[in-house]
Amino acid sequence: MRSFMRQAAFAAFAGLAAGAATAADNVRIAFIDPLSGPFASTGTNGLHQFEFAAEKLVNEKGGVLGGRKFEIVPFDNKISPKESLIQLQVAIDQGIRYIAQGNSSGVANALTEAIEKHNKRNPDKRVLFLNYSAVDPALTNDKCNFWHFRFDANADIKMDALTDVIKQSDAIKKVYVIGQDYSFGKAVAAAAQRFLAEKRPDIEIVGNELHPIGKVKDFTPYARKIIASGADAVITGNWGADMLGLGKAIIEAGFKGPIYTYYAAADGITAAFGESGKGILRLVSEGQLNPPPSDRVVEYARAFKEKYPDGNLSQTRIANVIEMLARAIEQAGSAEDVVAVGKALEGMEHDSLWGGKLFMRPQDHQLIQDVHILVHTNEGVTFDFDNSGYGLVVESTVKMASMDAPTTCKMKRP
Predict the structure, then answer these.
(1) Do 64 and 145 lie in a common domain?
(2) Which domain holds residue 111?
(3) Is beta strand 371-377 parallel, antiparallel or unpaired with respect to 281-285?
(4) Are residues 183 and 122 in the same domain?
(5) Contact by Cβ (8 Å): 54, 98
(6) Which of 8, 77, 107, 378 sits in a 20 to 30 Å window from 44, CA-based?
(7) 359 plus 386 within the same structural domain
């Protein structure tokens, strides 16, 4: 009897040890984004997309390096650069070597600077920064470094594509530019001024202002100024609650022209606009859900919706992050040697799940890809957002946008 009990206890211990060993072998990716506060819905949905992509695109296919699984570890940064740096250190102390972040370029600027300093001081504990959504152009220009890789098109690339569309519209004579008062909002405004002046010097910018991020409760005063300006179109980089508040105020004030945005979709935004935003809201982005470019997209999107019935597959670039990282780790032959992984990512060409080619430009670590102009509608929508019946449909596409755009990046490699 005692022998049996000893054998059972040993078996149980062995099972626990095996489980612990398996967990220890996971390739962990720290997800540092808002999981509480006014932008919690955006961060939570992004977390779900990372978890799903890791499971569907890597783990279900056997993992990397002979069976190691991807594990997404969430850290709530409360959209604060200071809190993000605290969470970064916690992640590093836990042995995590990959950092994913996207909400707020202010946070991204703080992280990339801290990571560069950390990697210089701790060559045996280096980490890579997988920037999936922070689009301040400076991050792949003057503030570039080897450890930072951006998988989204930056603000300048998106504005270049967006103004290619605007320049073709003779109906647009006046444009109002408005955004959040931080690095990204300022970058959008600067890019709008520059590209409109180059492509349509006859267009008058009748307003160019910034507002406090996450603090405006009533955007009605801003909407009134936009209407009074006589603007034919609005350009904004607002996201989250600020995008919803601004857009609703503009439309309710009677604006009928196009509102060109970077992030006017999902996380409750699509449902809240509904019919009122149809044909008015437009979004410049990468990735394509409607119409689905392939059966693989249909399968992936349906599986995501089955797992997260209230979720939105709104950041298609996340799948690109996971697939390209897995390829780089396999090519490097190690998940711990982040220098080798980084060098494998440099210059990588990849067929995107969403259609089209991806190219990680080696000189600045900016991913080059197709950029689409999408329209908010309920027509031709295979996959909607917020279970609303409304979604985004491709209106036009700029292939491999800004492939030859110059960069001021002077990267020092390890």
Answers:
(1) yes
(2) 9-152+298-368
(3) antiparallel
(4) no
(5) no
(6) 378
(7) no
The pTM score is: 0.90
- Distance CA(204)–CA(290), nearest Å, equals 33
Burial of 397 (0-12, 13-18, 19+ CB in 10 A): middle
pLDDT, tens only, 240-297: 889 999 999 999 999 999 999 999 999 889 999 999 999 999 999 999 999 999 999 9
DSSP string, 127-144: -EEEESS---GGGGTTT-
Based on the domain organization, do 309 and 356 belong to the same domain? Answer: yes
Indicate if 117 and 192 belong to the same structural domain.
Answer: no
For residues 77 and 34, the answer to whether their CB atoms sit within 8 Å is yes
Question: Quick one: 109 and 248 in the same domain?
Answer: no
The domain tally of the chain equals: 2
For 116, other C-beta atoms within 10 Å of its C-beta total 18
CA 211 – CA 343 distance, rounded (Å): 40
Residue segments in the chain with a per-residue pLDDT below the cut of 70:
1-24
- In percent, the amount of the chain with pLDDT more than 90 equals 90
Residues with Cβ within 8 Å of residue 121, at least 6 apart in sequence? none
- Whether 363 and 377 map to the same domain: the answer is no
Residue 338 lies in a domain: yes
**DSSP annotation string for 309-358:** TT-----THHHHHHHHHHHHHHHHT-SS-HHHHHHHHTT-EEE-TTSSEE
Q: In what order do the strands lie in the sheet with 259-261?
A: 204-211, 174-180, 233-236, 259-261, 281-285, 371-377, 391-398
Residues 6+ apart with CB under 8 A from 325: 29, 98, 130, 341, 345
